[in-house]
Amino acid sequence: MRVTPWVFLCAAVLLSVERICYLWIWWRPEKFQVFCTRPAVAHFGAPIDVLQYLFYTFKVLQCAVFIGWCYVHGNGSILTLDGRTLYLGLGAVLIVAGQALNVIVFCRLGKTGVFYGNKFGYDVSWCREFPFSIFDHPQYAGALLSIWGFFLATRFPHEDWWVLPALETVYYSLGARFER
Predict the structure, then answer these.
(1) What is the C-alpha to C-alpha distance for residues 118 and 113, in angstroms, rounded to an integer?
(2) pLDDT-derived band at 137, boundaries 50, 70, 90
(3) pLDDT at position 83, please?
């Protein structure tokens, strides 16, 4: 099935919200801190706590977009195993590797480091240990490995399999570039 332009546009807009939000927080942490004092937001806690909630919300949105993409382009099916167990396995390996990178990042930096604590006045020491010894943004690398793995497992070799992973690669690359 060919990529449906309106589905692509909706996916692109929904997936961009996360990156735009993170860039806003990175470049305007003081405005985010003010936002966090609003009564509807303040009960979530300090800015790093609010950012953690946003992180989980964005991951749910991201998963919903991915599953919706598979559903629409898979004619009502999210996963078909018609002789594609090799790609399912390779995709699973990429997902596990990506999630392992993310877990290591969380272990190395802790909640405060992962959720931009340095931008909110916390003392966050620079980490040079693995995976930071290999990647500038190992959490983004882990996310992208997981995304490529998901679509390799669910959509390869259909012609749309690479579209959202490529889009997310652009989004994460731009995020990494502008978060310097």
Answers:
(1) 7
(2) very high
(3) 65
Q: Does the pLDDT at position 153 exceed 70?
A: yes
Place of tokens 């990156």: 19
**CA angle 151–152–156, rounded 5-degree value:** 100
Q: What is the pLDDT of residue 3?
A: 86
The structure tokens listed for 96 are: 């596990």
Within 10 Å of residue 26's Cβ, how many Cβ atoms? 15
Question: How does 98-137 read in b/e, with b if 16+ C-beta sit within 10 Å?
Answer: beebbebbeebbeeebbbbbebbeeebeeeeeebbeeeeb
pTM, rounded to two decimals: 0.94
Amino acid at 112: T
Task: Pull the structure tokens for residue 17.
Answer: 């919200």
Neighbouring residues of 52: CB distance < 8 A, sequence distance ≥ 6: 111, 115
Q: What is the mean pLDDT of residues 6-25?
A: 97
